[in-house]
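Lab notebook, bench 4. We co-purified these components, and the gel suggests they stay together. Before we commit to crystallization screens, I want a quick structural picture of the whole thing.
Request: model the full complex, all chains together.
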Amino acid sequence: MTAFTAWTLLTALPAVDEPQMNTAGWVFLGLGWVCVTGLALWCFKRVMGSGPTKG
Amino acid sequence: MTSTDYAPPPERERWGSRMGLILAMAGNAVGLGNFLRFPNEAVKAGSGFMTAYFISLLILGIPLMWMEWGIGRRGGVRGHSTCPGMFQSLTKMRFVRYLGAIGVVMPLLIVIYYVYIESWTLGYAYNAVTGALGEATAAGETSGFFKTYLGAGGGFLDMEDLNGSWPAYSFFGVTIVVNLWVLSKGLSKGIETVAKIGMPVLVLCAVALVVRVLTLPVDPESGRNVLDGLGIYWTPEWSRLFSSEFGPTIWLAAAGQIFFTLSVGSGAINTYASYLTKDDDVALTGLATVSTNEFCEVVLGGTLAIPAAYLFFGMDRVTEAAQSNMGLAFNTMPQIFASMPLVGGEASGTTGVAIFGTIWFGLLFVAGITSSLALSQPTMAFMQDTMGLTRKKAALVVGGIIILCVQPVILMPGVLDEVDYFAGTFGLVLFSTIEVVLFMWVFGAGKAWAEIHQGSDIKIPRLFKFVMTYVTPLALITMLCAWGYNNALPILNFEVDPSGNAYSEAGKTGAMTGRMLMLGLLAFFLILVFVASKRGHYDNLMKEGDDS
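Here is the predicted assembly.
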């Protein structure tokens, strides 16, 4: 997440009226999607691995 | 260390499976906000929103989720499924049980209007299937269709308009009956079953729409493409985050969205967590809930409405649509579906509204019902645990309260907005602040940390202990102070409405009615907590001789 934030700080660009997906936007989106989806998959893998109910 | 000496009462309800619990919790969190409020807030705040959003998730969302799971399980182990008892289990100060009453009233207030909005999605799914919505869209009458559907919502007790509200009333009736029926079936057979079916269906519907949106061709006339639509909020721009002009708005919007989307601060998570046993994990399951919600919001919700609206209608229309969650869902989306090709490049028209509209409104209904069930459960649990009602009687009482209290929401303009603002927005921050202070400072950070790690499947990084002890409360108190400084007096004095606009006469009456409704219900539950105290309902928490 630190790298995530650092990237946005390093690649700051001025706002435009018409949106445009630039390289920084793609990297930000890619990291966001990968982090969120990866975390969800990791959690579910751990949950499935630890049995139906623990206790 | 946490105590392990408290056996739950034998009749206490339990979750059937851990996956069912996670899906029910995720169902609580994944709601209309993921698909409507999130993209709209992102557009309104503009570049920088996503950075503030992820930081808010780390310092507010995830810590609060763990705390609420910890508080909820602790209370449940001691036989208390609602916040009055849970708070009392943290300290022997008697007044905290009355603070806990807010955690019963607030989800009830939210569910009163939430079920009504949820019923619109059912009504619209029905109208998409029958083709009525498609015809209205083809005629350019989506706005008129919405007004006709709602009928009485347009005027203050305008009885002439009441005829037009019968569709809204009918679908509300169906929605509330379905909710109560599920609630009356209980935790495992009712809520968990709905979550196990509903959540996969919701994700499949959303994925189907996302795939269609992402594969839409470039608009030949304007040259716009759907990927640039994603750039509206994904293009990072840090200077806005720290500018005095935009910064506060962006941070407040991002933090507010985190509260809304994760359903923290309402008392609903605490109640669901109270049905765990003392050795059930809360750290990993809490994180699984957060990540499932974030997947549905960031990946799915953020890729649907706004990018498609940008492709077909351009940036001006996106900015206009983002001003209203309901406008986006019920007016703009049918127009998008009519413009969207099924395959190839031809607009699908009424067929598209029928197919995509059914998926979209069906998805919103499933997202809505899993949330409304969670929001109803604290009142259900309070009636069962504290008042000794059976599950079916408790469901009838909850239904009666909702049906009675929803009438001003339906009939009077301004009531819904007022209740949504105080219970569904400001109230979440206020109640979260109370929870954090009680758990991390009154109960104690060390014991709170141990409580969350009791039976844990993962070790939470120690940095989060610092965040939960200092950063989260500081951020919450800052938000409350900012509200107090900027908004409190004008809003409390009826000078401006929660949107910052001047009140109309009818809107002011609605706002006053909304406040009376909120105060009336709060007084009612404070009295019930008092009665329960006199009956000795909280005595086990006072006699334990155990602060662990």
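DSSP finds two helices and no strands in chain A. Worth comparing against the SEC data before the next meeting. Chain A touches chain B at residues 1, 4-5, 7-9, 11-22, 24-26, 28-29, 32-33, 36-37, 39-40, 42-44, 46-48, 50-55 (CB under 8 Å).
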